[in-house]
Fold these 3 entries.
Entry 1:
Amino acid sequence: MVVGAGFGGLAAARHLAHGPLEVVVVDRTNHHLFQPFLYQVATAILSPGEIVPPIRRIFRRQPNVTVMLAEVTDVDLPRREIQLCGADGARRQLGYDYLIVAAGARDSYFSHGEWARHAVPMKTLAQAVVLRDRILAAYERATEVTNPQQQRRWTTFVIVGGGPTGVELAGQLATLARQLHRDFHRIETERARIVLVEAAKQLLASFAEPLRDHARNKLIGMGVDVRLGSMAVNIDEDGIDVQAHQGATERIRAGTVIWAAGVQASPLGRLLGDASGAEVDRKGRVAVGPDCSLPGYPEVFAIGDMVDQHDLPGMAEPAMQEGAYVAKLIRARISGQPAPGPFHYRDLGTMATISPRDAIADVFGLRLSGLPAQLAWAVVHIAFLIGWGNRVGVLSRWAFDLVTRSRSERVILAGVSGADTR
């Protein structure tokens, strides 16, 4: 039983294919989400369908894999059963011999859940589409008002969080503002204000200092207002209050506030921790053993963003490696072969894109920036994307954007009024 069809769950299920066992993949959506490209959906580069291959299509040539559209609501570890809530609301129990839980993570507003009404997150495809609606509708709203202060508010975008997601969003929002100027005659879109707020004293903490500096300088050169050592203390329908360390609080009136700061493990992490006695940290991640199993339950594994495994980063690569390792371990047990040793993560490096022609990358001991890093980033991400149709579609969209300097995915699905839920 594999719970979750993200990077970790997908890797586990694919490595268990074509074997003498039945694999059931359970997910509450019918698609695998390629999260690294969510920001490109939000900024009107890619179509949603280009980053979400259907799970059933992924496993169409693996007859031992069954896909179920359902949500796991409870786990009975002693009885080896999980409780599911199906798409029709019906509940049922399913037994398992081995259980792999790869339920991922969700947004965390650091005990300020009320901010969710006004700060759009970007962890799911639906959230990325809502964010795209908000961004595009903000420019439409700006054309409807004549007051310069109101226009300024609608064309001010604040991003909270200076990790890879925040940096990528900031760079693309700055690029989008310049590209829209030919289509809007009553406002100067290229004068849009992009503010990136980060509580730490540096962007992209996991990168080497030269690469962090390159990213910061590049964003500033693109017109992004980078606020380091500053944190959000209030977010409401009119904007955000930002406070520097031991400094005064500044009010930034903004039409769109984007949340790219914190994540919390899936509730299944705490559920597994309570059921097994495993420790659960403040991020909701459950502690697992060297083989990714729960204490006292060697047949139950947790992988990916929802686990604390040597404090590995919440990225695709650790989850994929954990999924492949657990599948190898299960195959060894079933066949009676010696089990592999403890899980060991192979760090392949980190990357982040800044603009259509610039990125940073720290891979295999090489520190790249500029166009070489952008090319490396593109090659790696296209390789990880599932399905040749999706790969060709994404490449063609990128080529169109580079040549025409225009975004074709500018549909406001909810309508202007619906895009602004405030």
Note: The radius of gyration is 22 Å.
Entry 2:
Amino acid sequence: MFQAINFPTRIGMVYSFAFDNIFVDYGRINSHYVLHIINGLSEHEAQYLVLNNVFNHHKDKKQQFRTRTIPKEAITAFQNRSINENWDEVLQHKDVNKGFNMFLSTFLHKFETSFPMQNVINKTKNNQWITAGIEVYCKRKNSIYILSKTTNSPIIKAFYTQ
């Protein structure tokens, strides 16, 4: 996700704020641009978002994303690493914020090494709701459609329409 509005949308005599936010998913939209429109009606300016290539995507497109797999063996290894860690320096630190930062740094290092991020390619189709029965029905209907266009029989045309 990317924040598309990067200019103030509410401008007063001594202040300017960016109250309005539009977030764009780069995975689905190839390019965009935003313009601000001074409408003269109030101190609040309008935004004009132009999205390019919104409908230009392939149905069977392979999508790559990052995820973590957390098997039970890795959980056990993570627990063992955490138990065997010497937390004395974290617990005895006088500054609470620095102690927490030390804990968080150690914890995240163990977490990242135990459960690394992995690139996964999603090969599933966007039309998973189509069942085998629907596919058979669509093929049959298509063949009846072709037959109704190539024949003059009113019975076949009525059957297809029905």
Note: The CA atoms of residues 32 and 51 lie 5 Å apart.
Entry 3:
Amino acid sequence: MWTCLNNESFLSFTAHWIYPEFISQYGVLAVKPSASSHTGINSAKELIAIAERWNIAQDKINLLVHDSGANMVKVVRVADFESARCFIHSMQRAIKELFKSQTDVLEMVAALR
């Protein structure tokens, strides 16, 4: 889930898999505007519907990687997906908080914008 600068929201579903020959592949299975609220229940329903549309059985979804947002934590609980929080997203949030205390960095970023 993400929201553009114009406040339009989108949901995406990306799959990653490995062929028997150990060839790694990936594909975007869906990107769609999300008119409904980003609640865990609404998002879980959308993700389950996308998986069903592609005939992906629940036991074939090994891991859903997500940010640490409360809505996404609820999505994986409601949809009963195995999940992991994205390490890079967590690092980005920690660095952003660190920069808030560095006025010189904030001024430089503002000047660059």
Note: Strands lie at 2-3, 9-18, 24-33, 64-66, 83-85.
